[in-house]
Fold this protein.
Amino acid sequence: MTYKKYKMKKTTLYILLIIAFFSCTKKHNSDNLYSDALLPIIDSALSFAEQQSLLMAKKYETQDGRLPKTYQDGKDMSSDSRWWCSGFFPGSLWYIYENSKNPETLNYAQLYTDRVEREKFTTDNHDVGFMLYCSFGNGLRLTGEERYKEVLMTGAKSLGTRYNTNVGLIRSWDHNKENWQYPVIIDNIMNLELLLWAAKNSEDSTFKNIAISHADKTIEHHFRPDYSSYHVVSYDTITGLPHLKQTHQGYSDESAWSRGQAWGLYGYTYLYRETGEERYLEQAKNIANFVIHHPNMPDDYIPYWDFNSPDIPNTPRDASAACIMLSALSELIDYVNATQAKEYMNVIEKQIRTLASEQYTAKLGENGDFILKHSTGGYPFKSEVDVPLTYADYYYLEALTRLKKKYEK
Ligand code: GLY
């Protein structure tokens, strides 16, 4: 072999090794990561979800402007579009339609999505992202409907009005309970996806600058050294620094409210997808590590409503937190190495098997026509405790859809 040939062979070998390394770290389908036994469970959960959600859709069809909220003490509870959860039921219908392609489901997805449209003008709270991106965002992704773009863009502008340059974050609430000067809750990380969509679909870099600033300041001030997060951080509007760190829906100021941890995990996962910034991936992995290995995380990975509730195990679980984590991990699994992916898949599989079982999945026509039981909204103020919630169903369906696609690759 000539020296030139030897050099070429060596270079080819290096290239092959690099390719092999990246295939091992990023692609797992070939390693049987997604067990065949899970697919029928996913399919049957999606098929049940359609039957159940069509009952819900028919129930509210003639109730002008109403959207499902929960089912409590044997009664259906609904809201108008002002409630922060108004986009979740239309969003659920979009995921169901994405899987079934049933024209009846499409009609309902469009009908309920339209019920949320006026929220594009909302400037008095931060929930615009939840309301519009789950409904119109999914609608646009699946149908390309031009009209939906205008709704999303107007909504992103409305959300942007809540950004204060001195603080560098979007204000969550306007009320000043507990002397908050400028309250920002961890949940707010979810609303940035709408801004990143607007940045990609306009010439205006402000949307992205706001999102990045909010995401970075949240890493700086909302998280503790163990990567758990505070629920509410209130900022001093003059110095731009936190003056209070508290809870609203959690057990205590220093506790880890389960849904808050789930919002953080989900938020930094999509922030990595949308920006490619490694610091967001690291943050997501660290949050995942915190929740997965928490000593109070049950074996089925459906967390109690707060990781630090002193009443564990005699206190309610929060299926909604589990579903948000499940959906986040179903995406994060694509960005990590094979060992990490295996660990996430173990969690995902246990969560799906539990959520799809009779313990959590309702019977057809029961549970107020919601899919899942046992979520907890605001435990400290005895609101929506151990009930179905629209966002548990939404993130469950999103996770099932994300996972189903992995089998189709
Ligand atoms: N964003 C409100 C909640 O998670 O309850």
About this structure: DSSP finds 13 helices and nine strands in the chain.
